[in-house]
Write a structure and sequence with these properties.
With 905 residues, the protein is of the alpha+beta class. It contains 21 helices and 36 strands. The strands form seven sheets. It has a 20-stranded antiparallel β-sheet that branches. Strands 4-3-7-1-28 form a five-stranded antiparallel β-sheet, with no helix packed on it. α15 packs across α17 and α19 packs parallel to α21. The longest helix has 23 residues.
């Protein structure tokens, strides 16, 4: 067995120190530690996630720094690859407990020169030639990017009252709309009526005001005749030099989903039309760079020819010559050419869209064409200016739709439907009648057959949310086709600046639990190949199994059905995964070490989904998430383990995304949820009434979820940072004083003091406790706070989970029982080995990883190609793969390589 010293293990942590750090404003009872400061690099080379983009629309990103190395008020500058200075806006988004900078955020202006890479310097930078300015008054907020002038309303329905460019108004009165329907007709006849509600603004907040980036948050709901529903939070992002507004739209579903339904949800904006009908243009994007290019009044294909120059100009979107210069057989008959004022592109599934047009309301639609997947971008305007508009993840989040109406009038409208009215009402009803499961014993029996934890009244979507990204471009004229295609690509994948894996790892970010991809030995290469295989499989399954749709996109399935050659989409708790056993973390750690763009985008979609759809943001269960099931909200287990901030942290710090910041801040007071709902209500053997001074809280999935929220609020210095710090440190200290620490299983928690009560020396260990982010939270906390008793308690749990029964009994008084998920827990063993410098534990970790449960050398590590009639669609199947095992294998492989690579057999 090789000799593995403590120094070797620490070096394996991506050169990041694992010694404790000094707490910020720590209580006197917690001793401070003195550690050497790891120097921060003077420069960091940054890259584009997907390579240099065709269009710069600005970008925001985060960069981590080692503890104690960079002052909180440190200046920054940015340079292009050729050394030319580039303006940058910088601000802190995370602090180490000693007050030094942990994460900085930076914004690149939209008019900055495009470079293959940039260099971030820790020195003062230059001021750009253009900047974004914000002016506020009682009725409006006005933002000027130097290219466009945007007036926002503080009340009423119009979020954006006008967008002007060069003195010309390009857009006016952007408002939100929803169609509400009070029934779903299940027979052939359709009698249900719809009513339209529009946005009503209640609050406007300027969150950032330049010089490179301005952010305005708008809150309100949809209203009509006294009825209000669907609260919204919309953020508008404007960059210096930008010709566009980025809109991040979030709505909260404040309905039980049984008696009223969304029949349409969209954003509508007016577009002034000033040009002659033959100088007005419509553009709609299709597959890839495909683009429908038409004029409102077309002069091509006519019986009489106006002239090749005239036809070419219209196709190009250019102003046509004076009609007096055309062939007069056309000019004198222009009034007989139809003007096509209305267009619709409808994407009702991930596999097909259709385009129709008509002359005006009351007249028949004419089919234009169809295709598979539209990129979701449109344009309406003319040679004197127009509006480009698009929705990200358009076909992935079907049913979506783009409408243009009235392009033949003096005011067209463009509507992006996030839920298409052509699709019928959004059906949020629960999917079965309960099947007689009226009591806890009956529900537990149901759990034993379908794995669904059913309880009447719990399968409600009330309080879930969905976020969608939109872009609106104020264009001075109808752009060439290549320019419009580039804008469409920008909507599909907004350019993202990123820091490289080597810097992310060296900073000690996220507990130092990852290291850059390394294939330097055959053993390492084998593990890396298998990690790639698993990600590629899920990426391909998403495509082949069509894991798309408004509520579904971003999630994956839980377990396959090997007999039907499908995933168990209709079998209780085996269907949608809802973050079970942390696939979110597997994906993000896979990105952190690889820098792969496809992994980033996959993880980004999952973060958007699981943080919004699988978590309640309103109502009695606000702050809790829903366990895996046929519908994302169906299961009655509402728990911290799904809503935990640990699944959102990585995306937030990499992008400084404000919406995800909201999601984490929402959870700071989620200890209150234990007063509203007892997670163990169905299996308790003794009477239990929640007491705010003696709440029964598990030390695994429950506490780790609370701790992740407190940690994030504390290091962000959020509005409740003081409370978060108090409760975080109090729970750590009182867990540490329990005779069996984390092995105790649960404790009685006081909501006011944040402390756990004294506990007896008992043993209660679950295979799930550490598998929902606790490993990652504890690694970060031990790297932040010098609390030896807490570290000792966590290292005991890490050492003993996979230990022998004799070893468990010797320390804790009894053994832990029959446990599973040993491969996933091998990373706990590796962590203890790294902290203690224990070569025996390191070797044991790899034995647990390769030769216990989970995926092993005996696993097939390949797919089988299946075609009809055995399957509905051609698929590449790996029936031996399930998401629980995949997430734990991925995390164990990544963390073991970072913590104990030198012990890899």
């Amino acid at each position: 067995m090789p000799d593995i010293s403590r120094r070797t293990f620490v070096r394996g942590l991506a050169a990041a120190p694992m010694a404790p750090y000094i707490p910020f404003k720590a209580p006197e009872s917690i001793p401070a530690a003195v550690t050497a400061v790891v120097p921060a690099p003077e420069t960091v080379t940054l890259n584009w996630l997907e390579g240099r983009p065709g269009t710069n629309v600005g970008s925001t990103w985060g960069v981590p720094w080692p503890k104690g190395a960079v002052p909180a008020d440190s200046p920054f500058s940015l340079a292009a690859a050729d050394g030319a200075a580039v303006p940058v806006q910088s601000w802190p988004i995370g602090y180490w407990p000693d007050g030094s900078l942990k994460w900085s955020a930076h914004a690149l202006p939209a008019d900055a020169p495009l470079s293959d890479s940039y260099v971030l310097n820790r020195t003062a930078g230059v001021t750009g030639s253009s900047s974004v300015s914000v002016a506020e008054n009682r009725d409006t907020v006005t933002v000027d990017t130097g290219v466009i002038h945007v007036v926002l309303g503080r009340r009423g329905s119009a979020l954006i009252r006008s967008i002007t460019r060069g003195g010309a108004e390009i857009a006016r009165n952007l408002e939100l709309i929803s169609l509400r329907q009070t029934s779903i007709e299940d027979d052939d006849e359709r009698r249900a009526s719809r009513e339209k509600l529009t946005s009503s603004i209640s609050r406007v907040t300027v969150e950032q005001r330049g010089p490179v980036r301005a952010v305005v948050r708008i809150e309100g709901d949809h209203r009509r005749r006294g009825r209000s529903w669907l609260p919204f939070i919309v953020r508008l992002y404007l960059y210096a030099g930008a010709e566009h507004v980025r809109v991040v739209h979030t709505f909260l579903f404040d309905s039980e989903g049984q008696k009223e339904f969304i029949a349409g949800l969209g954003v509508r904006v007016g577009v002034p039309m000033r040009d002659q009908l033959h100088d007005r243009h419509i553009r709609l994007s299709g597959d890839g760079d495909g683009l429908l290019r038409e004029a409102v009044e077309g002069i091509t294909g006519l019986r009489r020819d106006p002239g090749a120059t005239v036809r070419a100009a219209q196709i190009a979107g250019e102003k046509l010559p004076d009609p007096a210069t055309w062939d007069q057989r056309v000019t004198t008959r222009l009034q007989y050419i139809p003007a096509w004022g209305d267009y619709t592109l409808s994407q009702l599934s991930s596999e097909g869209y259709t385009i129709q047009k008509r002359t005006k309301t009351g007249y028949g639609w004419v089919g234009v064409d169809s295709g598979k997947r539209s990129s979701g971008f449109g344009y309406v305007g003319g040679v004197s200016g127009g509006l480009g508009f698009g929705m990200r993840d358009f076909w992935q989040k079907h049913p979506a739709q783009l409408d243009i109406r009235g392009a033949d009038t003096d005011r067209a409208t463009a509507t992006i439907w996030m839920w298409s009215p052509d699709a019928g009402p959004m059906d949020t009803r629960f999917y079965h009648d309960g099947m007689g499961q009226d009591t806890f014993p009956e529900q537990l029996e149901g759990l034993n057959i379908t794995y669904e934890d059913y309880e009447p009244g719990f399968g409600t979507p009330y309080g879930i949310a969905r976020t969608t990204e939109l872009m609106f471009f104020a264009l001075a004229a109808t752009p060439p086709a290549e320019r419009l295609a580039a804008l469409a690509r920008t909507v599909v994948a907004p350019p993202q600046v990123v820091a490289p894996p080597a810097h992310l790892a060296a900073s000690g970010a996220f507990g130092g639990l990852f290291s850059p991809v390394d294939r330097s030995t055959p053993a390492r290469a084998k593990v890396e190949d298998r990690l790639d295989f698993l990600f590629d499989y899920y990426r391909d399954q998403t495509e082949q199994r069509h894991w798309y749709g408004f509520w579904n996109y971003g999630d994956v399935m839980h377990t396959p059905d090997v007999d039907r050659h499908v995933w168990r989409y209709d079998v209780g708790g085996y269907a949608w995964d809802n973050s079970e056993l942390s696939p979110d973390l597997w994906l993000w750690f896979a990105y952190l070490r690889s820098g792969r763009a496809d992994i980033f985008r996959f993880a980004e979609a999952m973060t958007r989904h699981t943080g919004e759809v699988d978590v309640y943001h309103l109502g009695r269960w606000a702050g809790l998430g829903t366990r895996h099931g046929v519908q994302h909200w169906a299961d009655s287990a509402k728990q911290q383990r799904i809503s935990t901030a640990v699944y959102r942290r990585i995306f937030y710090f990499l992008t400084a995304d404000e919406r995800v910041g909201d999601l984490m801040h929402e959870l700071v007071d989620s200890d209150q949820t234990f007063l509203a709902l007892d997670p163990l209500r169905k299996i308790r053997t003794e009477p239990y009434t929640p007491d705010p001074h003696a709440l029964s809280i598990g030390l695994g999935t429950d506490w780790s979820g609370l701790a992740a929220a407190w940690l994030t609020e504390w290091e962000r210095r959020g509005p409740k940072a003081a409370v978060a710090e108090k409760k975080l440190l109090a729970t750590m200290r009182t867990i540490g004083r329990m005779p069996n620490g984390f092995v105790t299983g649960s404790g009685l928690y006081d909501i006011d003091t944040g402390e756990f009560a004294e506990a007896a020396k008992t043993v209660s260990v679950s295979h799930l406790s550490a598998m929902f982010g606790q490993v990652e939270v504890c690694a970060e906390l031990i790297g932040l706070v010098d609390l030896p008793e807490f570290e000792k308690a966590w290292l005991q749990y890490c050492r003993l989970y996979n230990a022998t029964r004799a070893e468990q009994t010797a320390e804790c008084g009894t053994h832990f029982g029959t446990l599973i998920l040993k491969q996933g827990h091998s990373r706990l063993t590796a962590y203890a080995a790294a902290r203690l410098g224990d070569a025996t534990l390191a070797a044991r970790a790899w034995t647990e990883f390769t030769a216990t449960d989970g995926y092993t050398d005996a696993s097939p590590w390949q797919t089988t190609h299946l075609t009809g009639p055995a399957v509905l669609n051609t698929v590449d199947e790996a029936p031996w793969v399930d998401t629980n095992t995949t997430a734990l294998y991925g995390l164990a492989a990544i963390q073991n390589l970072a913590l104990a690579a030198s012990a890899l057999p």
